[in-house]
Amino acid sequence: MRTAIAALAFCVALGGCGFRLAGSERLPAVLAKPYLSVRDPYTDFAREFERELKSSGAELQLGRQDATATIEVTKDLIEQRTLAVSARNIPTDYELRYTVTFAVKGPDNDILAPQTITLSRDYSFEENELLAKEHEADILRAQMARDLATMAMRVLSHVK
User: Fold this and answer.
1) How many other C-beta atoms lie within 10 A of the C-beta of residue 38?
2) pLDDT tens for residues 67-84?
3) Assign residue 81 a region: left if phi > 0, alpha if psi is -120 to 50, beta otherwise?
4) What is the pLDDT of residues 34-69, one digit of tens each?
5) Residue 10 has pLDDT above 80, yes or no
6) How far apart are CA 121 and CA 141, in angstroms?
């Protein structure tokens, strides 16, 4: 019984001081019913961003006319470039670069100017482990998309 009371008091104290779990930020009222405009809704970022919006309490609208604001994702780009090659001219290191640009528009005005977020990750490559390295690149892309969606949500949570 004492343990339950102590746990309850601890939770109340944490809530009272403003503590929130990471990723649980609430969106401002203007983003309560947004329309999400993306060129390709099947990219890693688009899916993660939609999931993050829903978990933050946003009710995504099917059309702009019913929305309180429009979140426009104008750039969702993954680039891969070679960082190093072996003596036999075979790539040994790559860089993945994921760039996202988004803005928020209200019915009459721009609420948030275009914001660009970029993440990059390096990974090594061995031709003997082709399938494993391709899988590693897929995992890196998915993780970068999650990180970008979280970063975008932090920006959106501070919109006035």
Assistant:
1) 18
2) 999 999 999 999 999 989
3) beta
4) 999 999 999 999 999 999 999 999 999 999 999 999
5) no
6) 9
Question: Is-contact 115 106, C-beta < 8 A?
Answer: no
Could you give the 3-state DSSP secondary structure of residue 34? strand
Taking the model in full, what pTM does it have? 0.79
Structure tokens at 29: 């009222």
What is the spatial order of strands in the sheet that 91-105 belongs to?
34-38, 69-85, 91-105, 110-124
Beta strand spans in 44-108 (E)? 69-85, 91-105
Give the C-alpha distances (Å, rounded to integers) separating 13 from 6, 17, 59, 101. 10, 6, 30, 38
Q: Are 48 and 21 in contact (CB under 8 A)?
A: no
What sign for the dihedral angle of Cα 137, 78, 82, 144?
A: negative
Contact yes or no for 141/78 (Cβ under 8 A): yes
Contact 34, 71 (CB under 8 A): yes
